[in-house]
Amino acid sequence: MLQISCPFCGPRNEVEFVYGGPLKNRRPDDISQIDDTTWIDYLTVPKNPLGPVQERWWHVRGCGCWLTITRDTRSHDIIESEIES
């Protein structure tokens, strides 16, 4: 189990959170200029690199805030946690 540190509630078990997925690049402003394959990949294919990855987590069973955490995918260690603004 992950221990995620919420800025408001302190360290909490991951069962209090809902995984929101990896942090993505901003959606393209004009999607009509993008081919279908690129658009489908943007929507459905998450990156899965080894090492630090930024992820979004929602503290649904706590204060309700969205967090961005940086987690090392090799060890599951949480390197950094910050609240979404």
Topology:
Elements lengths: L2 E4 L3 E4 L4 E5 L13 H9 L7 E7 L7 E7 L5 E6 L2
Antiparallel strand pairs: 1-2, 3-4, 4-5, 5-6
Give an overview in words.
With 85 residues, this protein is mainly beta. It has a single domain (3-24, 39-83), classed as Folate-binding fold (2-Layer Sandwich), CATH 3.30.2270. Helix content is 11%, strand content 39%. It contains 1 helix and 6 strands. The protein has a 4-stranded antiparallel β-sheet with strand order 3-4-5-6, with no helix packed on it. The chain has a two-stranded antiparallel sheet with strand order 1-2. The longest helix is centred in the middle third of the chain and has 9 residues, at 36-44. The radius of gyration is 15 Å and the shape is elongated. The chain starts with a strand and ends with a strand.
Order of helices and strands: EEEHEEE
What percent of the residues sit in helical stretches (DSSP H or I)?
Answer: 10-25%
How does the major sheet shape up?
A: 4 strands, antiparallel
Span between termini: 26 Å
Residues in β-strands, percent: 35-45%
Which stretches are low in confidence, meaning pLDDT under 50 for 5 or more residues running?
none
- List how many beta strands DSSP finds: 6
Can you identify the CATH class? Alpha Beta
Quick overview of this protein structure:
The protein has 85 residues and is mostly beta strands.
Features:
85 residues, mainly beta, Folate-binding fold, four-stranded antiparallel β-sheet, two-stranded antiparallel sheet, 1 helix, 6 strands, 39% strand
